[in-house]
Specification:
The complex is a heterodimer of chains A (531) and B (299).
Chain A: H1 2-19, H2 22-39, E1 43-46, E2 50-51, H3 56-79, H4 82-89, H5 91-96, H6 102-135, H7 143-170, H8 172-175, H9 177-196, H10 207-221, E3 230-233, E4 239-240, H11 253-276, H12 290-296, H13 301-305, H14 333-345, H15 350-365, H16 368-379, H17 384-387, H18 393-396, H19 400-404, H20 409-428, H21 430-438, H22 442-466, H23 470-485, H24 502-528
Parallel strand pairs in A: 2-4
Antiparallel strand pairs in A: 1-3
Helix pairs in contact in A: 1-6, 2-3, 2-6, 3-6, 3-7, 3-9, 6-7, 6-11, 7-11, 9-23, 14-20, 15-16, 15-21, 16-21, 20-22, 22-23, 22-24
Chain B: E1 3-12, E2 16-26, E3 29-34, H1 41-48, E4 56-61, E5 64-65, H2 70-74, E6 77-80, H3 92-103, H4 107-120, H5 136-147, E7 154-158, H6 166-179, E8 184-189, H7 192-198, E9 201-206, E10 209-215, H8 216-222, E11 227-232, H9 237-243, E12 245-252, E13 255-261, E14 271-272, H10 277-289
Parallel strand pairs in B: 3-8, 3-9, 6-7, 7-8
Antiparallel strand pairs in B: 1-2, 1-4, 4-5, 9-10, 11-13, 11-14, 12-13
Helix pairs in contact in B: 3-4
Classes of the chains: A mainly alpha (531), B alpha/beta (299).
Chain lengths: 531, 299
């Protein structure tokens, strides 16, 4: 009983800590926006060029799938800080000194993660109810048909998301930015794989459960229907097929059991996480963050004492400090730029630099199309963790007070940090730029330059505004996947996939970059004023 | 060189008032800022260090309002916050060089300065080690070094001796004493002995208000003849605590030796003692809590 109470207490405290932050309001606003997007048809469930009539069942399943799909992606980044917060605040060490087991701790954190995601689900479920009354396509309200998809499709999917976020936090390799990037691909795989291998049992998000219910009904009703089924964004060409009144999923005990199984999988993931969880023991963490090491005392006393000169020096020595004149206090901008660049690239293993150098050389050596395509894409995802530190490094390492009490941070330090990242983007893409220059492709070179400016600008703005690197890592990976990798025009900020429109899109990205940088400076100015 | 704190108040969201009409004028020397936890010391430090702005009132550095022109002060400011971090993948030298660049020091000056500071904070032999492996005390010494990088005219140190071993603490006190000649040093702490050792002026703060300010001698003189030693049995101690302000106790073979602060002889046989700064501090806090008039002792 006391263990259950401990799990509840951990979950409750973590949940309260989260919901009392302003950022939780933004989280709920995101859920409201998703509901609005569904209600206004910006996101819709399509059967080819048609959709079903807005019955309770159709609206329920559509909003539920929107919830599952988007919340599983974005929600992961929202909740993936439950353990990290305890690590940073030092609460973790206090908890670690109690009899609390790893599993109980993680179950408590899981409860909190799940509660945060479930609160967003509640907002969307309410939006779905409102939507049916506003749409008035079908006035018959069936509570079970509308709400059962939220209960049986979305909740297990969100439980899985909550557990995976926790699992990532317990594994050292997935705890940081690499995990944030990896999640995007895992999420994509989880959505696509069940359809690709025709195995709906491996479908945690429930897309194929809906597919197997909707598609046969559509086949029987819509003439010429060829099993098209998709959740689409910003496509207004969908039409209602008036005769298609879908009545909802037939929740057989087998289907229910299948969905409930995912709750069990979530529980299993937490147990696996408990095996990896270091229980805030710094000895099990090779690379500590500053705050961690600060709170844990950093190096062991024995290790610290091994440093020659750390102890035993006389207390009374001469403190000879040569005074600085006023003219000696002003350095040029290049010095701070170099300092920021060094800070950005420091701390990686040798092979990181080797791969980066290899990518640049390869860009110059291979045919231009490959250089501008696959290689430039690879080069511009490789330093993602460097870019994602922009605007967040000070918070992550608690150096704000040291930095913000320095003179001219806004006109010097922030531009230097941004330019260092722009320089890095240009350097990593230098091989392609060289090839474009030699080939005389001025427009393509212009698009390349816009891309090199866009990436750090997005990182800086998101970093300064959100204070965390997670959102840039998630959003940039998504844009990079859609744009440079899959060559979707407009999204490809390298210009490679935009064909003749490359210049136009380059101007667009330049404009967006300018806005992002201005937003970052505005926010940092407020931070410097202590607002 | 002068720092004027004029009727500064700070209210946090939720109507939490951290500072109330706080006023001081500082000239070169070491000011010891003493106060209990939550008194508003760190808020005052952050305001003086241009990290946060006062809700009302103003702070003037040589006549310039630092809320409007923070860089006028930041150019000559050295600040050691109570809580600060470092970048774990940089060495001490790299970290100090980075901050020197941000503070605006030229490379050659920075190198020379860092070399001197590493000697002063006794980190020369650890100069090339990554900060991520440093102990709390070593990190604190890095913090002290960074605060002195730009030869500050105003040096603000918030709980600077936290985490330092006794020897390093003495070194730091000596350093502060030597540095104070041509600059204003503000030392915020609740460790009375640190202040006693180096401060030329002392400000006592409680509930966001200045409750006493002056030279150490002046503060001590205010309770001269009010500190006593009483020897009693252990059983009588609770009653004595209820009647008088007790600043210290020591159990000996002849009973408990109790240090009492009282306007008059607390007990027959009580022996008068020389007041310490801790006595003055406790007496001022007790007077403030009991609602007695705020004592402003001007040096």
């Amino acid at each position: 009983m006391s263990t259950l109470y401990a799990i509840y207490a951990i979950g409750r405290a973590d949940f309260l800590e989260r919901v009392r932050r302003h950022s939780f309001l933004v989280t709920l606003l995101f859920a409201v926006y998703l509901g609005y997007a569904a209600a206004t048809g910006q996101i819709s469930l399509r059967l080819g060029e048609y959709r079903g009539v807005y019955t309770s069942a159709w609206i329920g399943v559509m909003v539920s799938l929107i919830t599952t799909t988007f919340l599983s992606l974005v929600g992961f980044y929202i909740v993936k800080n439950a353990v990290e917060r305890d690590r940073q605040t030092g609460v973790g060490e206090i908890l670690a000194s109690t009899p609390l087991s790893r599993t109980a701790y993680l179950l408590g954190k899981f409860l909190s993660n799940f509660a945060v995601l479930a609160s967003m689900l509640v907002v969307l479920a309410l939006a779905a109810i409102v939507m049916q009354f506003l749409a008035t396509e079908d006035r018959a309200f069936h509570a079970w048909a509308l709400l059962s998809p939220f209960l049986l499709l979305s909740l297990p999917a969100l439980a899985l998301t909550a557990a995976l976020a926790l699992l990532f936090e317990t594994m050292r390799i997935l705890r940081g930015g690499f995990g944030n990037v990896a999640w995007f691909f895992l999420w994509g795989l989880t959505i696509g794989l069940p359809g690709a291998i025709d195995a709906h049992r491996f479908d945690p998000f429930g897309l194929w459960t809906v597919f197997r219910s909707v598609v046969p009904a559509a086949r029987a009703t819509i003439p010429g229907y060829e099993d098209a089924f998709s959740l689409t964004v910003a496509d207004s060409s969908v039409r209602v097929f008036p005769g298609f009144h879908w009545e909802g999923i037939d929740w057989t005990s087998g289907e229910v059991l299948l969905r409930v199984t995912w709750l069990g999988v979530a529980f299993g993931l937490i147990l696996i996480g408990a095996l990896f969880f270091d229980r805030f023991d710094p000895a099990r963490t090779r690379a500590q963050s500053v705050t961690e090491s600060k709170q844990t005392g950093g190096a062991s006393e024995a290790e610290a004492h091994q440093l020659p000169g750390a102890m035993g020096a006389p207390a009374t020595i001469s403190f000879a400090l040569v005074p600085l004149s006023d003219s000696e206090r002003t350095s040029n901008f290049t010095r701070i730029f170099v300092a920021e660049l060094r800070l950005a690239v420091k701390g990686y293993r040798w092979w990181w630099y080797a791969v980066a150098a290899g990518l640049v050389v390869a860009q110059a050596a291979v045919p231009l199309e490959i250089s501008r395509g696959l290689l430039l894409s690879a080069a511009w995802i490789w330093p993602i963790l460097i870019w994602s530190a922009l605007g967040t490094r000070e918070g992550r390492f608690s150096t704000q007070q040291l930095l913000f009490s320095c003179p001219r941070v806004l006109p010097r330090q922030l531009p230097a940090a941004w330019l260092a990242s722009v320089f890095l983007a240009a350097l990593l893409g230098a091989g392609t730029a060289l090839r474009l220059g030699l080939a005389g492709q001025g427009a393509a070179l212009f698009a390349w330059a816009a891309g090199a400016l866009f990436i750090p600008s997005l990182a800086l703005a998101l970093g300064v505004w959100t204070g965390t690197s997670r959102f840039f890592e998630g959003l940039y990976t998504a844009i990079w996947y859609i744009g440079p990798l899959n060559r979707v025009p407009g999204f490809d900020f390298t210009g490679g996939g935009s064909g003749g429109l490359a210049s136009r899109f380059a101007w667009l990205y330049l404009g967006i970059s300018a806005i992002l940088v201005a937003a970052a400076f505005a926010r940092r100015a407020r931070q410097l004023r202590g607002i | 060189m002068q720092l004027n704190v004029e009727k500064v108040s700070k209210t946090y969201p939720g109507n939490v008032q951290a500072l109330r009409s706080f006023g001081l004028t500082l000239r070169p020397g070491v000011l010891g800022l003493l106060g209990p936890n939550g008194a508003g010391k760190s808020t005052l430090m952050r305001i003086l260090a241009t990290i946060t702005r006062p809700t009302s009132g103003r702070v003037l550095w040589n006549g310039t309002d630092i809320a409007n022109k923070p860089d006028a002060l930041r150019d000559v400011l050295g600040y050691l916050p109570q809580d600060f971090g470092i970048y774990p993948n940089l060495t001490v030298v790299e970290f100090l060089d980075y901050l020197a660049a941000v503070k605006g020091l030229r490379a050659a000056n920075a190198r020379r300065r860092i070399r001197d500071l590493l000697d002063i904070v006794n980190l020369r032999d650890a100069a090339r080690r990554l900060l991520g492996g440093f102990s709390g005390g070593m990190r604190q010494r890095v913090g002290i070094a960074q605060a002195l990088l730009n030869d500050p005219k105003l040096l603000i140190v918030d709980e600077p001796t936290a985490g330092l071993d006794p020897e390093e603490r003495v070194r730091f006190r000596n350093l502060l004493s030597e540095l104070s000649g041509e600059r204003i040093v503000i030392l915020s702490t609740h460790i009375v002995s640190d202040v006693e050792a180096v401060a030329t002026q002392i400000a006592l703060i409680a509930h966001g208000q200045l409750i006493a300010y002056g030279a150490q001698e002046t503060l001590l003189a205010a309770i001269n003849g009010k500190v006593w030693e009483v020897v009693i049995s252990s059983d009588a101690l609770p009653q004595l605590r209820q009647q008088h302000l007790v600043s210290n106790t020591a159990h000996r073979s002849d009973g408990v030796h109790v240090r009492v602060i009282a306007d008059e002889l607390p007990k027959a046989g009580a022996r008068p003692l020389e007041p310490s700064l801790e006595d003055a501090y406790l007496a001022a806090l007790a007077a403030h809590r009991s609602g007695q008039a705020v004592r402003e002792v001007v040096a």
